[in-house]
Predict the 3D structure of the following.
Amino acid sequence: MREAAFYLAGAGAVFFSLLMLFQRGLYAAAACLLGALLQTGALLYLAGSPLVGFLQVVICSGGVMTLVVVAVVSAPRKAGAGGDPAMWAAGSVPRPLAAGVVLFLAAEAALAAAGAMSSAGASGALDARVGAVLFGPYALATEAAALLLFLAALALVSGREREAR
Amino acid sequence: MREALAFFSAPLLWPQLTLASGLLCCLASGMSRGVTGAASRTLGVVSLLVALWMLLFTGRGPGGPLVSLDGLGAAWQILFNVGALPVFLSLDEDDEVPASLLLGVCLGAGLLAASASLLMVFIGLELLSLPAYLLVARLPSASAPPHEASVKYFFSGALASCLFLLGMAFHYASSGSLALAPAPGIMGAAGLALMGSAALFKLGAAPFHFWLPDVYESSAPALAGFLSTSVKSAALFLLMRLASLGPDSALSAALPWIGALTALYGSLLALRQVRLQRLFAYSSVSHAGIMVLGVGAWAAQGCDPAAAAPLFFYGLVYLCMSNGAFLFIRLSGLSQRGDAAGYGTMRAAPAALFAVLLLSLAGIPPTGGFLAKLLIFWEAVKAGLYLPVAVAALASLVGLGYYLGLIRDMYFDEPKWRSPETETGAVPVLLWVCAAGAALLGVLPWVLKSYLERLFL
Amino acid sequence: MNPALQVGLALFFLGLACLALRGRLLVMLLGLELMAAGSVVILTWQAGVFGDPAGLAAVVLILAVAAAEAVVGLCLILRLHHAGRSGDAESLTALRE
Amino acid sequence: MTLTALWLVPAMGGVLCLFTKAETSKRFSAAVAAAVLGYCLWLSVPYAPASGGWGLVETGPEWIFGIRYTLALDGLAFSLVWLTAFLTLVSLAASWKGGFSPGYWACFLFLEASLMGVFLSRDLLVFYVFWEAVLIPMFFIIGVWGSDGRRHAAMKFFLFTFFGSLFMLVGMLALVTARHAATGVWTWDMGELAGANPAGLAGTLMFVSFVIGFGVKIPLFPMHTWLPDAHTEAPAAGSIMLAGVLLKMGVYGFLRVLIPVFPKLCWELLPWLGGLACVNILYGSLCAMQQRDLKRLIAYSSVAHLGFCVLGVLSWTPEGVAGGSLQLFNHGITTGALFMMVGFLYERTHRRGLADFGELVGRAPWLTFFFGWAVMASIGLPGMNGFVGEFMSLAGMARALPVMAVAGAAGIVLSAAYCLPAYQAVFWGASGPGSVSSKVTDLDAREQVLVWVLCGLMLYIGLCPTPFLDGLAPSVAAIVPYGFQQ
Amino acid sequence: MPVPVSVHLLFLAPAAALLASFFLVRPFRPRWTHLPILLSCAVVSGAAIDLAAKVYTGWSMDQTLGLWMAAGTWDVSFGVRIDGLSAAVLAMVAVVGALIHVYAAGYMRSDPGFPRFFLSFHLFYLSMIGMLVSNNFVQFYLFWEGVGLCSFLLIGFWTHKPAARAASLQAFVVNRVGDFAFLVAILILLKTYGDTRFERVFELMAYQGGPLLALVGLLLFTAAASKSAQFPLYFWLPDAMEGPTPVSALMHAATMVTAGIFLLARAWPLVVFVPGLPTVIAAVGGATAVFAGLLACGQTDLKRILAYSTVSHLGLMALALGLGRVGVAVLHLIMHGFFKAVLFLCAGNIAHGLGKSAADVSETGGLAKSMPVTMACFAAGAASLAGLWPTAGFFSKDGIIEAALEAGPGWLAVALLAAALGAFYISRMLFLAFFGPSPEQHPGHCHEAPASMAVPAAFLALAALSAGALSHGIGSLLKVGGLAPEESLALAHFSWPVFGLGTAAAGVGFGAAWFLTLARPSFDWDWRRRHPGLQALVASDFGWRKVVALAASACWGLAEWVGGSLDRRRWDGFIEWTAPASLSLGGCISLKGGRLNDYLWWILSGTAVLMAAALL
C-alpha cells in the first residue's frame, strides 16, 4: 500500500518536473517546481521520515516561494531589446544530450547492478533520533551549515547594501 | 550535549575554530560603524596566522563520526592558510565582507581537510564554494563584465555540487554510511566517479575547467591568486581523499591521463591568450593537470599518506608561483600580454622577480617549479605511467612558449608605454617573498623535508 | 527494484535537463533545486533502509546547504539583473576566447 | 669548497655585477673571470698527472630522495672547466668595447657558473639542474644583446634545447627508478649508476631519450637547426661561449653518462649513432658550403666538427675517446677564435655576409693572417689542434667501425670546400658594390693579444698535445673499459 | 744513436729563420725579410749535402725523436728517416729550392707582399723537407698537407687576380681529395698494424699480410695522383700557373708535385705487394704522359706549356715506377727538378723582362738578342728535357725507355711518344720564344734579367746539363738503407738500342718543331683559326675540364639543395612550423563563444565518461 502511494507520489513528482521542463513562463515553471517539491515532500514522508518531508516542504517550498516573489520583483518587466529570451539554450544539443543520456544510462546501470537492495521503508522511529544526532555527534556539521546559511544571508544583504551605495 | 562539547574540546579543530571565531569577529566588526576594512583584514591575517600556529598543537586521529585529522589534512591546512595570506594583505576594500568571505573559504577548506565523513566534506566544499562565488562577484578585476563570471562560476559549481551530492547518495546507498571509507560494488564506483568529477571541477581539470579562465580573468588579481592556490589545494586534497577511497578504481586509473591531457590542453590554450590574467588562468589549468597526474601516480602506488610529499611540495611551490604571478599583475597594472614589452627596462626589480616566477612556472632548474614538477614526474615514472609523463613533459615544453615569451617581451623589446609608478607597501614585499619562495624552494627542500616528515606522520 | 532510487534519479535528471537545456538563469536555478531534491530522496530512502538516524540528520543538513546555495544563486542572478543585464544564460558571453 | 668555489664564485660575482654601474661591472666581471681562471690553473698544479692523477671529489649531505650534491674533478672535466674559464675571460675581453650594461657581464658570469656546474657535477640531478640553468643566461645573452633576429633565435634556442632536456629528464627518472627496482637503492650518483645497462624496450627508450637530450646540445643531426640561428644572432661573445663550451656539454654527457650507463646499447646501436655523427659531418659540411653569412657558415661547420667528437667518443678505443675529448677542447678554441674575429668584423661594420667584404688582406693583414690561421685549424690541417683530435677520433673509429671513419674522413675534403671559398671571398676577393671593407681597420693591441693566445694554443696543441692527452688519460682509461673490448 | 747536427739543422734552421723573419725582421725592415731565410736555405742545403755524403758512405738512420699524440698503447710519433731515397731527393730539393729562393728574392723584389711571399715560400720549403725525412705516415701526412697549405697561399698570392684565387682554391680542394685517400689509407694501416712507421708497417705487412692492402695501395696512389697531377686529378697544376713564377718553379721542380712520386717510392714495398697495382700506376702514368704531352703542344702561355710538360714528366715517372723501376723514377724526379727549375726561371725571366706576370707566345719571339743568358739557360734546360746526350735528362729518360723496352712494345711506344712530344713542345717553345719573331708575334720591349735572377738560372742550367754525371752516384746512394728491394732501385745501363731510340724520338720531336715553327712561322696560329673545334678541344683538355666543371657544379648544386632547400626550408621549416601549429591547435580545441550551457555540458560529458569508465 505504502509502496503504491510512493510510486504515485513519485509519478506526480516526475510529472511536475516534466511539466516544469517544458514550461516557457517563469512563474509557471516555478509553480511546477513547487508541485514537484511538494510531491517530493510526500515521497520523503512515505520513505519513512516525516520530519525530513516536512523540512523539505518548509525549506524548499519556502525557498521556491521566495524565488518566485523575488523573480517577480526583480526580473526585467519587459524583455530586452533582443526580444523574448529563448526558452532553450542555443547551441548544439545532440552532443551534450548524448553526454546526459550516457550519464543517465550509467546511473541506471549502477542501480540495476545494485538492484538487490531491500525496498522496505523505515519506520517513523528514526525521526526521533535525528535530533539527537544533529545536536550530538553532528553538532559540528550543524554549526557549519548554520554558518553557511549565515554567510549566504550576508551575501544577499551586503550585496543589496553595496549596490544601494 | 556532552558529546558535542567533547568535540570542541578536542584539539583537532582548533585551527578551524580560530578561523570561525575570526569570521564571526569580522562580521561583528561590520556592525559597528567606526571599524574599517583594514581592521577586518588584520583580523583575518591574525586568525590565519594563529590557525597556522595552532596547527603545531593539533593532535592526530579520529574525533567523532565527522572529524578526523591525519598528517595529510594538517599539512594541507598550511597550504590553505598560507595561500590566503597574500589576498588579505593586498586587499583594499573598505568593509568587512570580503575578509569574512575569505575566512569562510579558508574555514571550508579547513573543515574539508579534517573531515571523516562525506557529509562534512560536502559542507566544507559548499562553505568553500559559496563565499568564493560571492567573492568573484564582489572583487572584480578592472575590465571584467559585471557578474558574468560569478554566475558562470555559480552554475558550474552548483552542477558539480549536485553531482557530488548524487555521488554521495550512491556511496551511501552502497555502503550504508557516509564515512570516508571505500564503498563496495558498482554503486560505490559510480558514486566515486561522480564525486571525483566534482573534485576535478574544483581543481579545473579538463574538460571541467571552462569556468576557470572566465573566473580568473574577471577577478581581482589577488583574488585570482587566492582561487588558484587555496581553493585549488583544497580541491587537490579532496581529489586525493577520493582517490584514496579507491586506489584501484576507474577514477584513479583515469587520473593520470586526465592530468596529462589537462596539462597539455592548458598549455596549448594559454599560448593563445592575449590577456594576462586569462593566460595565467590557463597556466593554472595546466598546473592543475600536473597535480592530477601526481594524484594519479600517488593512487597507483597505493595512496600512502607519507608518499604525498611531492604533491604537497607542488602545492607549496605553486602557491608561491601563482600568487606571485597574480601579485605582479596587480603591482604592474599590466593587463595585456603586449603591455609587457620593455617592462624589464622600465622597472628592473618587479620584472626580475616576475622573470624568476615565470621560470619557476615553466619548470626550469634551479627553481622550485622544476623540483616540484620533477618530483611529480618521478612519482609517475615510479608508477610506470610513462606515456602520461611524456605528454605532461610536452605540455611543459608548450608552456615554455608563453612563459618565456613573456620574459622575451619584457626584456628583448623596447618599451611602448610608460608604466605607472609601482605602489609601495605590502604588495612588493609579498612579490619578493613569493619570488624568493619559488626560487629557493628549488634549492632548499631538505629544510622542509624533516619538517614534512614529522607533519605527515 | 528500488523505487526511491528510480524516482530520485528521475528527478535528478529532469533537474539536470532543466539546468542544462533551459536558457533562463532562474529556471536553471529551479533545475538545481530539483536535482538536490532527487538526491535527497535517495538518501532519505536509504537512511530508512539502513535504519540510520545519522543519514537522516545528514539529509537535514543537506537541505539547509541546498537552501543556502539557492540563496547565493539567487543573489547572483539578482545582481545581474541590477546591473541591467537579462536573465538569459545566452547573454553571458562577454568572457570568451 | 675547493670545487664549489668554481661555480659559486662566478655566480656570486654575477649577482654583485647586477648591482654595479656599467663600467665597474665590466672590470669587476673580468676580474672575477680572471680569478676563476687563475684558480683553475692553480688547481691544476697539485692535481697534475705527475702527482698521481686527478680525482678531487666533493660530496655534500644527501639532499632529498637519494640526490646528493657531488662534485668531482678529473682530467676530462678539467679540460672543459679550464676551457670554460678561459673562454669566459676571452669573451669578456672580446666585448670590452661594446658598451654593454651590467646585465651583460652578469650573464656571462652566470653562464660560467652553470657551465662549471655541468662539468663538475657527478650527481645526475645536480648535473641536470646546471645543464638547464645554462639556458637562462644564454637566452638573455642572445635575446637582449643579439642582432636583428635575436627574439626568435633566443626562443628557438631555449625551446629546442629544452625539448631535448625533457626527454633526458624523463630518461633519468626512468633510469633511477629502474635502478632502484634492481638494487633497492635510490641513487642519482653517476658512478653508482655506471654499468646499469637497462635492458629491453624500456632500456632502449631510456637510451634514446638520453641521446635526444645530449644530441640536441651537440647538436646531432637532425636536432641541429637551432644552432645556426642561435649562433648567428648571438653577440660575438655569446657565439664564442655557445660554440666554444655549450656544444661540448652534449658530448660530455655522452662520455659521462651515456657510455658508462648504457655500454651495451651504445655498442649495439653504434651503427645508428655513428651514422648520425657521419651525417652530421657530411650534412653539416654541405650546408656550410651553401651559407652566405660568416656566422652561419661557422655554425654549420660546428655541426660538422662535433660529428668527429661523437665518432671518437663512441669508438671506445683509447685513442678515439681521448681524441674526441681533446677535440672538444680544440673546437672550443678554434671556433671561439673564428667567432671572435667575425665579431671584430661585425663590431666594425655591422655586417657578416660573405659578399659584404673583400680585399681585406691589404686593409687588415693581421686579421687576415689570424683568420686564415684559425680556418686552417678548423679544416683540420695537421700541425694544428683540429687535426690531432679529428685524427685520433677517426683512428679510434677505424678500429670500431671503419666505414664510419671513412665517411668522417670525407668531411676533410668538404671542410676545405666550405671554409676556403669563404675565406677567399672575405679576405682576398674583390670587394663588390655593397662592400663595407673600407670600414674595416686592423686588429688593435687588445684584439691581437686575444687572438695570439688562441692561435698559439692551436699550434701548441697541434704539435704537442701530450700534456693535454696525459691529463685526459685517467678519465679515458676509466671510460674505455665500459666499452667493447677489441 | 746520436742524431747528426745536420738533421737538426734541417728543421731548426728554417723554423728559426721563419720566426726571426716574422717577429724580428718583418716589423722593422720588411724588405729584409728574406735575409734570414736565404741564410736558412744555405744552411739547409749544406746539411742536405752533408747528409747525402754521409749516406753515400753507408750511414742511414730511422729514429723516433718524440711523441706526437698518444692514448693508451696507441701512439704516433715524430721521427726522422734518412736513407738513400730521402737523402738523394733531399739534396736536390734543398739545392734547387735554395737557388729558387735566391731567384725569388730578385723576382719579387718590388712586390708589396714581399714579406708574406717569402714567409710562405720558406714554409713551403720547410714542409717539403720535413716530408722527405719523415719516418712514418702520419708525419708524412703532416708535411704533405703543409705543402698543400703553402701551395694554396702561394698560388693565390696575388689575391687581386680572380683566376689566382680560383686556382689556389682548386689546387687545395683537389689536393684534399688526395688527402682524403691518404688519410683513409693511414687509418686502415693503423687499424691493421697499429703503427705507422714505414719500416714497421712494411715489416708487419710482409709478415702477416692484410685484408685491405689492395685498397690501401689504391688509396695511396690516389693521393699521389692528386699531388703529382696524374690523369684524372692533374688539372689543378696547369691552373696553378697563376701564382708568381718562383712559386711555379719551386712547386714543379722541387717541392710539391714530386711529393706524390716520392710517396709511391717510399711506400713501394706496399705498392708492389698489391698484385696489379704497379701496372695500374704504369698505365695511368703512361696515359698522363702522352695526354699532357699532347696538350703541352697546343698551349700558348709559356708557363702553361711548362706546366703540361711537368704533368707529362710526372706521368713518365709514374710509368717508370709502375714498371718496377723505382730508382729510375727517382732519378728522373731529381733530374727533372734541375731542368724544370731552369726552364721555369727562364720563363719567369721572360715575363719579368716583359714586365708582366705571365707571357703568351704571341708576346714573345726573337728574344734571343735581348736575353742571351736566359736563352742559353733555356736551351740547356730544353736539351735536358728532350733527353739529349749527355745532359741530365738523358740519363733518366734513358732508364725509362729501357724499362719500357723491357716491359713490352706497348709501353715502349708510350714512352717514346712521350719523349718525342717532350722534345717537340720544348723545342717549339724555344723557337717561339727566342727565335723569329714570326709575323703573328708582337714582342714588347724586353730586357735581360738582373743578376739575382740570372745567376740562379745559370747555376741550374749548369746542373741540368751536367747532373747526369751524378747519376751513377745517385744510383748507389739510393740503395743505402732502402726499404724497397734492391733490384727496383737499379738504374739503367747504357745500351745502344735504348740510346738510339731515345735520341731518335728526341730528334723527331725537334725536327717536327723546327718544321712547324721555324719553317712555317704562322702554322701555330693558322690551325687555331682554321679549326676552332680543335682549339676548343685543346682548351678544355680534350673535354676533361668540362667533366670536372660539371662534377664541381653538381657538388655545389647538392650543397645548395641540402643547405637551402632540405635543411633550411623543409626541415627547419617544419620545426618552425610547430609553433604556429600549436597555436592553431589550441584554437581548434578551444571552446569558443563562452556560453554557460557549453560549460555545463562539458562537465556532464566528463562525468559521463568517468561514470562509463567506472562501470565498464
